[in-house]
Amino acid sequence: MATPFTVLTAAAVALDRANVDTDQIIPARFLKQPRGVGYGQFLFHDLRAGEDGFPLDAPAAAGAAILVAARNFGCGSSREGAVYALVDGGIRCVIAPSFGDIFASNAAKNGLLTIALEEARIAALLARLTAMPGSTMTVDLPAQRLTDPDGATCDFAIDPFRKRCMVEGLDDVALTLEYAAAIAAYDRRIATEEGWRIPQPG
Amino acid sequence: MNAAPRSLFDKVWQSHVVAMREDGQALLGIDRHLLHEGSFHGFAMLDHAGRHIRRPELTFAVADHYVPTRDRARPIADPAIARMVRLLAENAARHGIAHFGLSDARQGIVHVVAPEQGITLPGLTLVCGDSHTSTHGAFGALAFGIGATEVAHVLATQMLWQRRPRTLRVTLDGALGAHVAAKDVILAIIARIGAGGAAGHVLEYDGAAIRALDMAGRMTICNMSIEAGARAGMIAPDETTFQWVAGRAYAPKGALFDQAVAAWRALPSDPGAAFDREVTLDAGAITPHVTWGTSPETALPITARVPEPRGAQAGEIRTMLDYMGLTPGMALQEIAIDRVFIGSCTNARIEDLRAAAAVLRGRRAVVPGLVVPGSTPVRAQAEAEGLDRIFREAGLEWREAGCSMCVGINGDLLAPGQRSASTTNRNFQGRQGPGARTHLMSPAMVAAAAVTGRISDVRQLQEG
User: How many domains is chain A partitioned into structurally?
Assistant: First the structure.
């Protein structure tokens, strides 16, 4: 179960790129390893190896827990390892205009908050953080409020279920099992009325 | 009183809702769960929580992502990969799951195997820890990729919590031209709506050009829904679908099949069904497409030129041009390639191999390349038709089934800086190996590139 997420005040860093796919966040060849090895070492591995001055490697970005990126962050492969790499690498919150659907879903289940804001606000944040990497921001999930490096605040939207799971660190499976009666009724209906849905080996 | 008209998606969604919460979350029953070697994270979570698989008979495991595509008689050289393939077999045996392992005649890429075996059916919900699970929507199933935590949840409960997505219908009127393939259609759609354009939506593909496609073409299109940001893409089932499904190993038989077809006939979207968004394309205007950059949204008609870094996205374009080693304004057909790859869950079915072989027949490839069938049955069928000989005589390597160079984790890789013409689904930076450059296109277009050594228009090659 993920660590509950309430209020985070931390250094933020800009990754001013669109369509950062999960292959960039963690190249596939590292996914053979169990989570226990620590996935932080694989975070943006090939980007960091291939370019000097990658934003997360700036001295001012040391200890950053908030990442601000351009549109469609986390698109592509469903690998949850991308979320493990971010979380194990110290990132607790990603802010972008939009996210890959599967990535955002994986993130919520691992205590990584994704916040979608309009492009113009993201552009301003990216500019601010590119000029001053490591500036402090505050994310208040219960209040759904973001405080930018200049102290200005804005509200953000989040799915209420996702919020509750993150704030309380809820276990989905335990929650589902509370619906045992509805599940049993559903299974009975399939078996009696829609038997064709069951695989027919041989 | 008539009920409100419903879409294909509405019908499949509603028939799987087990419970609704006030906050808008639906508990959705899952009919099929597909696993592969990478699912070990999900099994680890299940074991850690001390839980069991609730419906093993709805769960199927296939080794595909990491498997070698040659020398299968020998032990797997990479110990980490050998461990993962073994772990999948052990987990499947321990939990009583059907498993198509490396030596099984049904083995192949999970999204090729499940339809082939009749595991995929219209009207089902189907999930897998792989984003290209959208492929199965070609049958009128609601099929989507999930992460490891959701894999563990489905293993334990056969359910998933989901918020109802929005719907986007893409209508393709008219008919496709000669040598224009399903791959060109989906690349044109992604170029139109963008790599994130359908995020939060389920796509439905409809129109005369979709109805005219065979199941392989429909699978190619639904497969790449995720490259437009949609977790799922769907096509209404019809006679083409029913005929394809009939008689497959796990499909319903006899009276149960008749009952199923009756239910499937009710699935297509009702006239007047509402969609949150609509996009219409003229199929006749679609030409062969090729990507130039590091996102599938960079697809262009083969007659186009690589863009100049101008406008609001100048920085993005320049970064992609640099990585791809391209000059702004050069013609796509001037781009020389180093290798070709024909394979993947997008384009490695028998129809894809036939399309590539039709171009390669009697010709020589001037660059090396791999042909990796989507499944062992596809491989056997291709050999029965003599396609393997055409590929070999052209100078390409004929391999065994798996994901291979699409994801590049089994050792089938490009060298840094090498450029491929590839039938795959992602041209992401480093996807086919660190520093590798990938141009996405149809099987026939890859074959044409193999023959000329540069990105080429298959229409010119085949028609003179």
Answer: 1
Does residue A202 sit within a domain? no
Residue window 113-152, chain A: list those with CB within 8 Å of chain B: none
- How far is the alpha carbon of A147 from chain B, nearest alpha carbon, in Å? 26
Please give the model's pTM, rounded to 2 decimal places: 0.97
State the burial class of residue B239 (Cβ atoms within 10 Å of its Cβ: 0-12, 13-18, 19+).
Answer: exposed
Q: Are B323 and B414 in contact (CB under 8 A)?
A: no
pLDDT tens profile B303-362 = 999 999 999 899 999 999 999 999 999 999 999 999 999 999 999 999 999 999 999 999
First to last CA, chain B: 60
pLDDT tens digits for B159-168? Answer: 999 999 999 9
**Residues of chain B scoring pLDDT < 70:** 1-2
- Any chain A CB within 8 A of the CB of B21? yes
Q: Quick check: helix, strand or coil at residue A67?
A: strand
Closest CA to B108 of B355, B376, B305: B376
H helix and E strand count, chain B: 16, 19
In a domain, A192, yes or no: no
Is residue A37, in this structure, part of any structural domain at all? Answer: yes
* Closest A-chain CA to B229: A100
Which tokens sit at B243? 């005929």
Give the H/E segment covering residue A178.
Answer: none
Taking Cα atoms as reference points, which of B217, B209, B213 lies closest to residue B175? B209
Give Cα separations from B442 to A43, A66, B166 (angstroms): 33, 40, 29
ipTM of the complex: 0.96
| Whether residue B149 sits in one domain with residue B117 | yes
DSSP string, B43-69: HHHHHHTT---S-GGGEEEE--SS--S
A176–B contact, CB cutoff 8 A: yes
Domain harbouring A151, CATH code: 3.20.19.10
Q: At what angle do helices B443-452 and B182-193 cross, to 10 degrees?
A: 100
Shortest CA distance from B406: residue in chain A: A28
